[in-house]
C-alpha cells in the first residue's frame, strides 16, 4: 500500500507542478514576472532544504507516524491556501490539449540540436546517476539514520548556492559547455558520494552534485 500511495502522490505532483508554473505567468504582471520567478525558485529551494532535513530528524527521533502526520497537516494547509486563489479563466483562442500538440512539441525539440542535446544530457544524468533511492540504504550502512533527511536536502543546498552566485553565467557565451560540465560534475560527485564512507563527505559530495545539476539545468 505504501508504494501505491507514493506512486499516486508522484502522479498528482506531475499534474500540480505544470499547473502551478503556468498559473504564475497568468496572475503576475509581465514586468514583475522575473522577480516572481526568482521568489518561486527561492521558495522551492527553501522547502527542498528544510523539509527533508526536518522530516529526517522527526523520523529518526520520533518515528514514522509523527512524520507522516505532519506531512498530512502541511498538505491540508496547502489545500486551504489554494482555495483562497481566485479562479483564472482559460486563455481565449488557446489550443486544446491533444496528442497532436505533444507531437508538434516533440518535432520542435527535435529540430533544435541545442534543446535536444540538453534533454539528452539531463535524461542520462537522471536515469543513470540519480541517487535518491539509495539514500536510506546508505544512511543505514553508515550508521547515520539521523542524516537521511540531510542527504535529501544536500542537493538543494548546492543548487541554492549556484543560484545565488549565478550572475557570471549571463556573461558566458558557451552555454552548451556549461551544461556538459555541470552534468559531468553531477555524475562525478554522485560517484564520490557512493565511494566515501564518511557521512559529512557524502553530504558535501551531494551538495556538489546539486550545484552541478543547477549549472546544467
Could you please describe the fold and organization of this structure?
By secondary structure, this protein is mostly helical. The chain folds into two domains: 1-94, no CATH class; 111-217, no CATH class. The chain is 77% helix and 0% strand. It contains nine helices and no strands. The mean pLDDT is 83.
Proportion in β-strands:
under 5%
Number of domains: 2
In the predicted model, the low-confidence regions spanning at least 5 consecutive residues are: none
Number of strands: 0
| Number of alpha- plus pi-helical segments | 9
Helix content: over 70%
Provide the residue-averaged pLDDT. 83
**What is the ordering of alpha helices and beta strands?**
HHHHHHHHH
Q: Structural class given helices, strands, pairing? A: mainly alpha
Largest sheet: none
Distance between the termini: 34 Å
Radius of gyration: 20 Å
Outline: globular
